[in-house]
Amino acid sequence: MSKQAEDIIYRGRILALARETHRLPDQREAQFEIVQHNGGAAALPILADGRLILIRQFRPAAEGFVWEIPAGRLEPGEDGAGCIERELIEEIGYRSAAVASLGFIYSSIGFCNEKIYLYTAGKLEKTTTALEPDEFIEPQIVSLEEALRMIESGEIVDAKTQVALLRYALRQGALT
Hints:
- There is one protein chain.
- Helix content is 21%, strand content 45%.
- By secondary structure, the chain is α+β, with helices and mostly antiparallel strands.
- It folds into 2 domains: 2-36, no CATH class; 41-105 and 115-172, Alpha-Beta Complex (Nucleoside Triphosphate Pyrophosphohydrolase), CATH 3.90.79.10.
- Helix 2 (144-153) crosses helix 3.
């Protein structure tokens, strides 16, 4: 399938809505409404003792607080690791000397092209936070086992956070 044309219906600060015409595998053309987004990055911060830092962040779209890992949107030309360096400082007040990839996900592939790069962030060094004026974030230190229970109980509903925790748990042999 290949994109043949696009018409931007709306362009905002963080996304655009496009009507795109694509050639399908059977060579027909069809129109789709696609939310275009620069993408993002998220990291699972891991303390020296193996415990994890989650954040409880106010999210208007969810109408309340949501458990997540630190994340942010990519600036034009920025890679995922650079985004994570910035977001760890902003949201939890840590720098990481050991960022490692956990792969990527598409946030909602049915209508959005947002690609989120996932990482672990180890060798953390404490610094100060630099929250944006509209951010309300409460960091919480938890064990991997506690975080997995939070997924199972429905406390962690954020997809990128679930995927990052589960991929990390698989690498640690914590899931069988």
